[in-house]
Amino acid sequence: MNPERVRSLLGAVLAVVLVIGTPAVSFAVTxxxxxxxxxxxxxxxxxxWPVDGVxxxxxxxxxxxxxxPGHRGVDLAAGATLRSPADGLVAFAGQVAGRPVVTIDxxxxxxxxxxxxxxxxxxxxxxxxGAVVARLADGGHEGPGTVHFGVRWNGEYINPLRLxxxxxxxxxxxxx
Length: 176
Fold this sequence. Notes:
2 helices, 9% helix, three-stranded antiparallel sheet
């Protein structure tokens, strides 16, 4: 096999282990996902994580087509409170398919969703970047202590990590 083909195949399977929050927490991101240049217009907006002590439990997985299987957001370990990643207005607070959801419209076609989440806020209430906007509730698609954080840009789901500047500082760890 020629060296260029080997490099290409290795690049396709290469995973970088990133440590988020505490030294015991890690997850993998493929080189292709890390190298993505789509949606450059979304970078450097100063968004903040909606949880304290970030621990990514399940990454974004774009569907092959609009109705295909995928994971249209990220699942994060969460404490009791959830924060707004950016300034915006509460666009929805209620039940969707039996799950409590809070949606925030940030303008410029950007909308975030936190689920399961309950809030005392009402539709139209302004929220500030980093402000507590909801409490983690029961009933999500993952286990207790997990929040699903989704982002839509002009109606299409995108990887929330694009708006958060990727992931916090990466640390490579020995595999053996």
